[in-house]
Amino acid sequence: MAISRTKQVNVVPPEYRYANWQRKYAPYFFIAPFFILYVVFSFFPNIFSFYLSLTRWNPLDGLGGIKFVGLDNYRYLIQDDTFFQRSLVNSAIMGILGGVPQHLVALPLAYLFNNSLKRIKGFLSALYFAPFITSIAAISVVFGLLFSERNGLFNWALLQLHQIPLIGGLFPGEPINWLGRSFWIQPSVALVIFWRYLGWNTILYLAAMQAIPDELFEAAAIDGANRWQQFRFITLPLVRPMAFYAVTLTIIGSMQLFLEPFTLVGQDGGAGNAGRTTMMYLFKTAFTDLDFGLAAAISWVLFAIIIVMTIINNRIFRGGKAD
Amino acid sequence: MSITVPSRKRIKTQQTSRVSTNYTALIIVLIGGLLMVLPLFMMFVFASHPKDNIFRFPPPMWFGDSLLQNYQALIQETEGRFWRIFWNSTYLSVVTTVTQLFFCSLAGYGFAMYEFKHKDRLFGILLATMAIPGALNLIPLYLVLSLLSQLFAPLDAAIRSVLPWFPSLLWIGSPKALWFPGMASAFGIFQMRQYILSAIPKELVEAARIDGCTEFQTYWKIILPLTRPALGTLGLVTFIGIWNEYILSIIIFRTPESQTLQTLLRLIGGGGTNTNVDFGAVMMGVALTVLPLLILFILTSRQMIAGLTSGGVKT
Hints:
The complex is a heterodimer of chains A (323) and B (315).
Chain A: H1 2-11, H2 14-52, E1 55-56, E2 67-68, H3 72-80, H4 82-115, H5 121-133, H6 136-146, H7 153-162, H8 182-210, H9 214-222, H10 227-255, H11 259-265, H12 278-287, H13 292-319
Antiparallel strand pairs in A: 1-2
Helix pairs in contact in A: 2-13, 4-8, 4-10, 4-12, 5-8, 6-11, 8-10, 8-11, 10-13, 12-13
Chain B: H1 8-19, H2 23-47, H3 51-54, H4 67-77, H5 82-113, H6 119-130, H7 134-162, H8 176-179, H9 186-199, H10 202-210, H11 215-226, H12 228-243, H13 247-252, H14 261-268, H15 279-308, H16 310-314
Helix pairs in contact in B: 2-15, 4-15, 5-9, 5-12, 10-11, 12-15, 14-15
């Protein structure tokens, strides 16, 4: 046994020994950076953050100042913390106001791109997609001016529409304080969200539609199906998996809403905190109040809510598969 | 139910209308598209008007002639540091993009071209990390960075007492706080693996080995040049993401030396309520923040859109 093993080693010339060794272990070195970074900057820190969620801790007190409080933070969030509950409602409202129209417009828009405007769909995609690549912190300043009560473009446009005879009554004659009144903050933020993600969702639906073979439509046309029937019975069922993916992303994004309200109405969410989302509340709890235990608990509750909503969404899309 | 056989003529018209342009749809979609770029257009309009004009009613809707004046005001408002801040953003974005391209293509190559123990399990873990929402990572990441800062603080102080020009070892307030943890992303590795699997035959790697390349040389000389299209797409996605990164930036880059365009916007922006600053200067800063990506987008829009949406398109 021992003899044969030494023999085998001797069979491999020394110059190949390195080649074999490095061939065997090279892939581990190639993939190692990701896993090391993940463990150091995400995995262990997340475990620590879960532990923190069971404590009270102001980081200025140092690691010795951590006080274990059990589930108190979670109990406080769920039972007593009206700011936290309000922030969840705010996120949900802005998510729905901004998210639902996105999909209702993106789907037919993608259909138009793909079927009626094939030749220039590249150009049109770029037009609708441009908002997605712009810095929200920057564009919020522009929206701040457009939304301005006394001198904003939006109020000016509404005023012009108000002066049109017959239909003018549909539009308000008084300027609206979009970002200053708690009632208007959520629709205003939702408009910016709609603006930013419409193109993105359109591209997702467009990609799904492009994957549908033309023969299907040709066959349906031969069978006498009109445009609407083709859309209803070919396009819609076949973009369903993509719709599931896109809606999932919208839900996850809405629950983590931060940038748009933070930059539009400020870190407290404007009048009556109407624009304060859960992420903004988390941000404030951690970096203004320096209550890291509670902040960690918020992030874990938010994580749980996102998981539950994703599962529900999954059920809805799976459940309706029969139709 | 009777089967209606449509005439040949009808089939033909339906097929041609599928390719030809529908003008009603075109007009509606074009108007919508113009509304989408309206805020971007208004941004440049505002940037070319003096501050008094910006707050006029109705607001200006065509370009003014105060570009230079606003630019000078911006330089003044930032006490001459604007290009330094611009450079910080550029440096951060370029370093993140380059390291990301290197480590993601390397790991993507590892996953695509090798068989090794626990490969499937490791790849599964990699995919699973993508599903974890960013909200969960904010607090932990900040804690690690501040812990690292505290660990390195004595060493940093010691080195700086001897060599004052030595780059800071602290993490909070340093660009490495953003680019170092982001050097290799699960998304990027996944993208690179998919591309290498689909575009590069394994025989090429075998041939390189027979010619005496080490495993890393094979990657560097053979794989890397061949993955250029995927690198371009991933590079664009990474660059946009980090250029626009806001939430971590405003926590980490609080010192004047580490300020980026995003943190500058936090200081001077504020939705038109901050009346202490010259708004012409603010709008110029806003336009100069958006302009680089906009130019990049106009040049590469097809590739950029494909890259940003590829997560959904490929699954």
